[in-house]
Amino acid sequence: MDFKRAQEIVASPLEYEVSYNGVSIWIDKLHDDGKTATVHLRRSLEERSEVDIGELKEEYLMH
């Protein structure tokens, strides 16, 4: 994922499915360096990690 798309997802009122290493996550904060973000697992609010935005993947759900 690129930084611009991550910004769109964070700013959107809609819910997007985003994963990191195949695990569903929420993006908590985008960092000023434009390369990293703080994320947490959807099932665990306590565990937060700083990750490379390029490793985030937007999952497209088929309906």
Automatic annotation (TrEMBL):
CC annotations in GO: endospore-forming forespore
Keyword Nucleus in annotation: no
Localization (cell): Spore core
Keyword terms of this UniProt record: Sporulation
Induction: Expressed only in the forespore compartment of sporulating cells.
GO biological processes: asexual sporulation; sporulation resulting in formation of a cellular spore
Pfam families named among the record's database cross-references: SspH
InterPro entries documented for this protein: SASP_SspH
Superkingdom per UniProt: Bacteria
The family this protein is said to belong to: Belongs to the SspH family.
Name listed for the protein in its UniProt record: Small, acid-soluble spore protein H
Organism annotation: Lysinibacillus pakistanensis
